[in-house]
Amino acid sequence: MEGGVDYLADERKKAEFDVQQMKIVWAGSHHTFEISDRISKLVANDPAFSKDERTMLPRKELFKNTLRKASYAWKRINDLHLSEEEASQLRFYVDEPAFTDLHWGMFIPAIKGQGTDEQQKKWLPLAYKMQIIGCYAQTELGHGSNVQGLETTATFDPQTDEFVIHSPTLTSSKWWPGGLGKVSTHGVVYARLITDGQEHGIHGFIVQLRRLEDHRPLPGIIIGDIGMKFGNGAYNTMDNGVLRFDHVRIPRDQMLMRVSQVTRDGKVVQSDVPRQLVYGTMVYVRQTIVQDASCALSRAVCIATRYSAVRRQFGSHNGGPETQVIDYKTQQSRLFPLLASAYAFRFVGEWLKWLYTDVTQRLQANDFSTLPEAHACTAGLKSLTTSVTADGIEECRKLCGGHGYLCTSGLPELFAVYVPACTYEGDNIVLMLQVARILMKTVSQLGSGKLPVGTMAYMGRIEHLLQYRCNVQKAEDWLNPAIVLEAFEARAARMSVSCAKKLSKFANPEEGFAELSADLVEAVVAHCQLIVVSKFIEKLQQDIPGKGVKQQLKVLCGVYYLFLLHKHQGDFLATSCVTPKQASLANDQLRVLYSQVRPNAIALVDAFNYTDHFLGSILGRYDGNVYPKLYEAAWKDPLNDSVVPDGYHQYIRPLLKQQRSAKL
Ligand SMILES: CC/C=C\C/C=C\C/C=C\C/C=C\C/C=C\C/C=C\C=C\C(=O)SCCNC(=O)CCNC(=O)[C@H](O)C(C)(C)COP(=O)(O)OP(=O)(O)OC[C@H]1O[C@@H](n2cnc3c(N)ncnc32)[C@H](O)[C@@H]1OP(=O)(O)O
Ligand SMILES: Cc1cc2nc3c(=O)[nH]c(=O)nc-3n(C[C@H](O)[C@H](O)[C@H](O)COP(=O)(O)OP(=O)(O)OC[C@H]3O[C@@H](n4cnc5c(N)ncnc54)[C@H](O)[C@@H]3O)c2cc1C
């Protein structure tokens, strides 16, 4: 803090809860708090990880700088003997998308999830030591969402006991894989398996792409970067790549063979593992993306909240200070639901991590029963949380007025880095439609004796939910979690049943599904919001120590669900889950909750425990010393290196001269 002055000190004094305890709730445990606190400071205090000028660097310099940081991070990880958890925290706080994200986040998980024990034994030690660097090469120029439509082929040659990997068309070029463009030595490449002239669906293959000696592409491989992406700096630190194969040969044992095996004589043997496990890496990453959503959203909210307390506009009385913009009800009604959503996504992410760990343990014991639930939850929640977060970051930019548009606010880069999360790992609409299929299947099986399980279990009470009438009579009734849960369950169930009824009128169900897809997506949103609300409420049933901490979380939970109720009141009214009077009472209660958040707002964002380095925002500085730092930063812009700009003599002077002579 400059000169030790904390411009937000008065705000911090207003807090009605134990911030230190809230930091632990946010981190998930004492253990994770300790690690994230220590590692974030380690990164922040190391000048080698400085983020200055990232948005101004030309692509080549930017990329080289990322390579430098990634290699230095790896050195620190080894020198300090960091655990896997600490190393992943270090990469997170370095906060620069890099090839290492795909190496650790997709290449290694793909081998772990789809490789046999033998394959894991061979490849994982090399990958763990970064003696090879890998990417996840699935998407092609012509096909991304439709994985079954991929065109790359892997044809078994029984003569040589090899697969021949080939890109038969331009559209079969691999296109997008991160880390592929300039760095990866290997990739898990997804291709159509062909043996003896027969097609056997999409499978993953470990393919070496570059020579380990000099990094040149192996024969038959064309490889490069796909070009600049949205925003300055941002995701351009990543070498998303293009890759073509011209009959590239790999040994048979480089097909990932946990799901199916190809024998020496070219027979395809299915193991008892479901074929959907080929999609397992995506399930894993979607789960991590839900956790990341709370990080990205909380970061934007932290910046907007601190700045809203610093910024003053209008309302000065007798020459006194103007009103802090955070005190405007409109500002609160835009900001506080995002603050509440950040907490909500944190808790649903925590739960999803648990679900995924549980599914993984079951898969290891050959119990595949919970795989559809894992697919539905990761697909639906990935879509919901990334869409809200991307929109939320943009809303935070607007909440910061003009200064939010400056790169030094940190918000433009955060938005540019974050927004592809709505597309990668499955386009959000495509994933919602996957959940819609599962919802419709669940509804169609009601009454068959097969009880819905997991997050669909509420559908088992369909008779009750179809008859449900909300009995809220006064605004405070909306603070009762049981009432809220039933209202959200009834809305989701009724929207699904309504879609199912409409679907049943179509002779061809696929035609019906396509025709009703927009309605189906709305039903899925209602279902996913119910999951988030219910996991927030479950969190509050736990023992949460610390003065006032649980109370603050109750307030945030109320803000989260009442805001949703208000925003989607059309759904609640159309399905007769609430009356117009009850919807209006919900909004009254929401306003009361906003005023309870207000004194705690700064402390609630302090609880994220973000360093100024990680936030990368002058508007979000911990000390609130915004104006002098904005002023200082402006002078660092290269345009201000000279008082008279380059180009003056060439372009400005002749222009001015011409104007003068025209006047004369
Ligand atoms: C300044 C800096 C600032 C800030 C930084 C801040 C934040 C950063 C934030 C976040 C970063 C975090 C992470 C980054 C991570 C990654 C980004 C980088 C990489 C991205 C990589 C990729 O995108 S990889 C490619 C991903 N591709 C996809 O997701 C494709 C989507 N398509 C599909 O999944 C499938 O094709 C489909 C599911 C849509 C359809 O498949 P199909 O086979 O046709 O299936 P169906 O016939 O419909 O269904 C068959 C049955 O299978 C079931 N199913 C489908 N999928 C799955 C599955 N995954 N698991 C289990 N089961 C599945 C389906 O339900 C059907 O079941 P039935 O019972 O009905 O038969
Ligand atoms: C930053 C970034 C990083 C990436 N990293 C990787 C990587 O490391 N490895 C990798 O393999 N891939 C990667 N990808 C690719 C990514 O996974 C795909 O772009 C993504 O799966 C979406 O597929 P698509 O591009 O084919 O979109 P499309 O499917 O072409 O989507 C275009 C539009 O069509 C709509 N649409 C498509 N199908 C349907 C349907 N059935 N019903 C209704 N609407 C539909 C979509 O909603 C969307 O509006 C990355 C992408 C990005 C942007």
Automatic annotation (TrEMBL):
One of its GO terms (biological process) is fatty acid metabolic process. Keywords: FAD, Fatty acid metabolism, Flavoprotein, Lipid metabolism, Oxidoreductase, Peroxisome. It comes from the Eukaryota. Signal peptide: none annotated. FAD binds at T139, G178. It is found in: Peroxisome. InterPro entries: ACOX_C_alpha1, Acyl-CoA_ox_N, Acyl-CoA_Oxase/DH_mid-dom_sf, Acyl-CoA_oxidase, Acyl-CoA_oxidase_C, AcylCo_DH-like_C, AcylCoA_DH/ox_N_sf, AcylCoA_DH/oxidase_NM_dom_sf. Residues 279-440 form the Acyl-CoA oxidase C-alpha1 domain. GO terms for molecular function: oxidoreductase activity. Residues 481-657 form the Acyl-CoA oxidase C-terminal domain. Its main location: other. Residues 18-133 form the Acyl-coenzyme A oxidase N-terminal domain. Coiled coil: none annotated. Its cofactor is FAD. The active site is at E425 (proton acceptor). One of its GO terms (cellular component) is peroxisome. Belongs to the acyl-CoA oxidase family. This is Acyl-coenzyme A oxidase. It comes from Cinchona calisaya.
